[in-house]
C-alpha cells in the first residue's frame, strides 16, 4: 500500500519538514507515489522507527517469576505487541547463551532461536537475533558458530559475567539472583561456578575462534562490559565494531576517539542514572561518549530517553533522535533504515508530544504497513491545517 502522510512535522534527515512524506512499495520516496492513501498526521511528529540493538525484556514474558515458565511462542507474540506499541520497528532480541542451567542455558537458547525464526515472518516488528555468548560457555561454541549463518544475520556479542562473579567484582552481589534464575541452590550454583572457572585457560582460544567465524560470515561483532581502553583495543583487533556498555568513561572515550559506536541503556537516561552504579548515560551523551541508546531491559525507554534529553525542544530532539534510529542502524549494520530519506524502508512512528514528559505513540508503521494504532487514523483533508503544524514547531 502506498501512502502520503500529511499535516504533521516529519524528521527528514536532520531537519524538520512540513511537506507530505511519500511512501511507495514500503519505502520512503522523494516523488509522488501512485494512488496513495492519505494519512492525516495533524498535530503529530513523524519520526524514524526505533532500532533496538540490544534488548532482553522478552525474558520476563518467558519467566515472569523465578521458576515460572511460559511457552516461547506465546512470549514472543506478546513481546512483539509491546515492541511496536513503544515505537520499536526493528529489534535484536538479546538471548544469552551461558553455562548456567535454566533461562540462559544452551538448551533454552536452542528453543528460543528455533521459535524465533519459525515465528519471525508473522511478527509485526522486524525481529532479529543478538547472540550474547558468555565467554566461559565453552561447550556452546560449535552451536553458536552454526547460528551465525542464520538469516537474517545475527549479531554476536562477547559477554563475561563469570570473571566478575568469581573475583567479587560488580556482578558478585547478583549471585543469589543468578542462582535463582538458574533453578539451583546458592551452594550448587557456586560449585558449578568453580568448575567453570577451572577452564578459564581455554577461554581466549574460544573467543578467537568465534570472532574469526563472525568475521568470515560478515556478522556484526560487539564486546560487552569492556573495562579499559586496552580491553577495547583487544576486542577491536578481533573485529568487535562497537563498545557495548563500557564500564567507565575512559573506555567509552577511547572507542569514540577511534570512530566507534558506544552503546548504553536508555533506561539509564529515563531513570536518571544506572541501576547498578555504572556510568551515567546522560553525562556520556553530553560529552560525546555515547552514540547509541538501546532498550536493555525496558522497551518504553528508547522513546522516552530521546524526549527526556530534548525536554520539549524540537531542534534538540532532531539531534538526539539518531541515538535510537540512524546511529543504531549503523551499529547494527542495517544501512536500509534509520531515517526518513529517499529509498529507506518506511519504518516510522507518529508521536503525540502534547505532554513532552509522556510522549504517546499514536501509530507505528513497518515497511509501509501500519502495525499499531492507538486511535483511528483519518484520511487527511485537502488543505493542511497550518495551525497544527505551527503549534508543533513552537
TrEMBL record:
<dbReference type="Pfam" id="PF01979">
    <property type="entry name" value="Amidohydro_1"/>
</dbReference>
<feature type="domain" description="Amidohydrolase-related">
    <location>
        <begin position="274"/>
        <end position="371"/>
    </location>
</feature>
<dbReference type="InterPro" id="IPR012696">
    <property type="entry name" value="PhnM"/>
</dbReference>
<dbReference type="InterPro" id="IPR032466">
    <property type="entry name" value="Metal_Hydrolase"/>
</dbReference>
<dbReference type="GO" id="GO:0019700">
    <property type="term" value="P:organic phosphonate catabolic process"/>
</dbReference>
<dbReference type="GO" id="GO:0016810">
    <property type="term" value="F:hydrolase activity, acting on carbon-nitrogen (but not peptide) bonds"/>
</dbReference>
<keyword id="KW-0378">Hydrolase</keyword>
<dbReference type="InterPro" id="IPR006680">
    <property type="entry name" value="Amidohydro-rel"/>
</dbReference>
<dbReference type="InterPro" id="IPR011059">
    <property type="entry name" value="Metal-dep_hydrolase_composite"/>
</dbReference>
<protein>
    <submittedName>
        <fullName>Alpha-D-ribose 1-methylphosphonate 5-triphosphate diphosphatase</fullName>
        <ecNumber>3.6.1.63</ecNumber>
    </submittedName>
</protein>
<dbReference type="InterPro" id="IPR051781">
    <property type="entry name" value="Metallo-dep_Hydrolase"/>
</dbReference>
Amino acid at each position: 500500500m502506498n501512502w502520503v502522510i500529511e499535516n504533521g512535522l516529519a524528521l527528514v534527515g536532520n531537519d524538520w519538514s512540513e511537506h507530505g512524506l511519500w511512501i511507495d512499495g514500503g519505502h520512503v520516496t522523494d516523488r509522488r507515489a501512485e494512488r496513495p492513501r492519505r494519512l492525516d498526521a495533524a498535530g503529530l511528529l513523524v519520526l524514524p522507527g526505533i532500532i533496538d540493538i540490544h534488548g532482553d525484556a522478552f525474558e520476563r514474558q518467558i519467566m515472569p517469576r523465578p521458576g515460572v515458565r511460559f511457552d516461547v511462542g506465546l512470549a514472543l507474540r506478546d513481546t512483539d505487541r509491546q515492541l511496536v506499541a513503544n515505537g520499536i520497528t526493528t529489534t535484536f532480541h538479546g538471548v544469552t547463551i551461558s553455562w548456567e542451567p535454566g533461562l540462559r542455558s544452551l538448551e533454552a537458547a536452542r528453543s528460543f532461536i528455533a521459535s524465533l525464526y519459525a515465528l519471525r515472518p508473522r511478527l509485526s516488528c522486524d525481529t532479529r537475533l543478538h547472540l550474547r555468548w558468555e565467554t566461559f560457555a565453552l561447550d556452546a561454541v560449535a552451536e553458536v558458530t552454526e547460528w551465525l549463518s542464520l538469516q537474517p544475520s545475527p549479531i554476536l556479542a562477547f559477554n563475561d559475567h563469570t570473571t566478575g562473579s568469581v573475583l567479587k567484582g560488580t556482578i558478585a552481589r547478583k549471585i543469589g539472583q543468578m542462582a535463582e534464575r538458574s533453578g539451583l541452590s546458592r551452594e550448587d550454583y557456586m560449585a558449578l561456578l568453580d568448575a567453570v572457572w577451572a577452564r578459564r585457560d581455554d577461554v581466549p582460544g574460544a573467543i578467537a575462534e568465534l570472532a574469526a567465524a563472525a568475521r568470515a560470515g560478515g556478522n556484526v561483532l560487539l564486546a560487552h562490559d569492556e573495562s579499559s581502553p586496552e580491553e577495547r583495543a583487544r576486542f577491536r583487533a578481533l573485529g568487535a565494531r562497537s563498545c557495548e556498555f563500557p564500564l567507565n568513561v575512559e573506555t567509552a572515550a577511547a572507542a569514540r576517539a577511534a570512530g566507534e559506536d558506544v552503546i548504553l541503556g536508555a533506561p539509564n537516561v529515563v531513570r536518571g542514572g544506572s541501576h547498578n552504579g555504572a556510568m551515567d548515560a546522560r553525562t556520556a551523551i553530553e560529552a560525546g561518549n555515547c552514540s547509541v541508546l538501546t532498550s536493555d531491559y525496558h522497551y518504553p525507554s528508547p522513546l522516552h530517553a530521546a524526549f527526556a534529553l530534548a525536554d520539549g525542544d524540537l531542534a534538540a530532539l532532531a539531534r538526539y533522535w539518531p541515538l535510537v534510529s540512524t546511529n543504531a542502524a549503523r551499529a547494527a549494520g542495517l544501512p536500509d533504515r534509520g531515517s526518513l530519506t529517499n529509498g529507506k524502508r518506511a519504518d516510522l512512528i507518529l508521536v503525540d508530544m502534547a505532554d513532552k514528559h509522556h510522549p504517546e505513540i499514536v501509530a507505528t508503521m513497518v515497511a509501509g504497513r501500519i502495525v499499531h494504532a492507538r486511535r483511528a487514523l483519518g484520511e487527511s483533508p485537502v488543505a493542511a491545517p497550518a495551525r497544527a503544524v505551527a503549534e508543533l514547531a513552537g
